[in-house]
């Protein structure tokens, strides 16, 4: 836990049961004592959270509101330990994930299994997707008190504005303070690892979002703002945000070029490519590795470097 350059913001680091490791949540002293993000729903995270709060003179009951950057369990699960009356704000796309809406989860499963079948994942490997439900045991069941959207100033936290940054999650926002040029960044920009733009069903309409393309746009969007620091969801703060954004965009382009070179040999399905890129990890992390692969293919298609054809219900990608 450390008090950051800005004395009004305290970072609290909590353990998660996920491969990403610890998550950072932030206590911000505005007109309302605000928590930005919560940890995962584990007793261990809750006990540590209370201990760390106590050291700086607070209890969970002192927290007056919570703002969430996105719906992932390591950022919202702990909300279940807080009183139900505590106001929670976030993008409206958090809603079905936060209330764990059965119909939405079914839609998500169906969407992924149809998409993955089209992308060449066989039925044996589709079974690996059971993991999605498991993840949500670490999440919460909450209703949003009010939705946040682009340009909103957070009530009780004046000076902080919402910037929508879809990509890593459709629900993702960051908070920006134009006076101090600070960003509460969630998982949008991390110092040590590149954020994974995850496949999700469309929140509106029928067309699948292309999270890698959205993510790149959301990164470029931040280049328009002067940034002194990004307080990140995992790991240390980022002080050279613009430089890191350029680096992330370049690295992504290089990864896409690597995928393009695989297609020199022959036309392939996304799943073929996924197994070439992640020969062992794909079995453990099918969702993450397929999201990464599809991200590169969407990027190459958008750059008019590849095309695809559906044959017998399976999509084959080839170079243009
Ligand atoms: Zn996340």
TrEMBL record:
Chain ranges of the Metallo-beta-lactamase domain: 22-234
SUPFAM superfamilies (alphabetical): Metallo-hydrolase/oxidoreductase
UniProt-listed Pfam families: Lactamase_B (PF00753)
InterPro entries noted in UniProt: Metallo-B-lactamas, RibonucZ/Hydroxyglut_hydro, Sec-metab_biosynth-thioest
Source domain of life: Bacteria
PANTHER family attached to this UniProt entry: ENDORIBONUCLEASE LACTB2, METALLO-BETA-LACTAMASE SUPERFAMILY POTEIN
Protein name per UniProt: Glyoxylase-like metal-dependent hydrolase (Beta-lactamase superfamily II)
């Amino acid at each position: 836990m450390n008090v950051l350059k800005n004395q009004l913001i305290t970072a609290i680091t909590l353990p998660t049961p996920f491969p990403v490791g610890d998550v950072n949540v932030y206590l911000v002293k505005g007109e309302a004592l605000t928590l930005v993000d919560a940890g995962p729903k584990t007793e261990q995270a809750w006990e540590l959270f209370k201990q760390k709060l106590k050291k700086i003179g607070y209890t969970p009951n002192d927290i007056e509101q919570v703002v969430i950057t996105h719906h992932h369990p390591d950022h919202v699960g702990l909300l279940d330990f807080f009183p139900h009356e505590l106001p929670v704000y976030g993008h409206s796309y958090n809603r079905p994930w936060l209330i764990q809406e059965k119909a939405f989860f079914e839609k998500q499963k169906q969407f992924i299994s149809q998409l993955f079948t089209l992308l060449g994942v066989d039925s044996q490997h589709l079974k690996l997707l059971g993991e999605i439900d498991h993840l949500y045991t670490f999440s919460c069941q909450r209703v949003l008190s009010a939705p946040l959207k682009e340009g909103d100033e957070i009530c009780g936290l004046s000076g902080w504005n919402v910037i929508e940054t879809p990509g890593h999650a459709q629900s993702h926002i960051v908070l920006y303070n134009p006076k101090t040029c600070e960003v509460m960044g969630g998982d949008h920009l991390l110092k040590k690892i590149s954020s994974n733009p995850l496949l999700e069903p469309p929140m509106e309409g029928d067309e699948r979002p292309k999270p890698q393309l959205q993510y790149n746009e959301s990164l470029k969007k931040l280049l328009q703002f002067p940034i002194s620091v990004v307080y990140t969801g995992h790991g240390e703060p980022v002080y050279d945000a613009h430089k890191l954004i350029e680096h992330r965009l370049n690295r992504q382009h290089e990864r896409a070029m690597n995928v393009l070179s695989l297609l020199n040999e022959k036309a392939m399905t996304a799943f073929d490519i996924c197994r070439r890129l992640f020969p062992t990890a794909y079995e453990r992390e099918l969702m993450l590795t397929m999201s990464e692969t599809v991200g590169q293919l969407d990027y190459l298609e958008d750059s008019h470097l590849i095309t695809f054809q559906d044959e017998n219900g399976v999509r084959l990608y080839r170079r243009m």
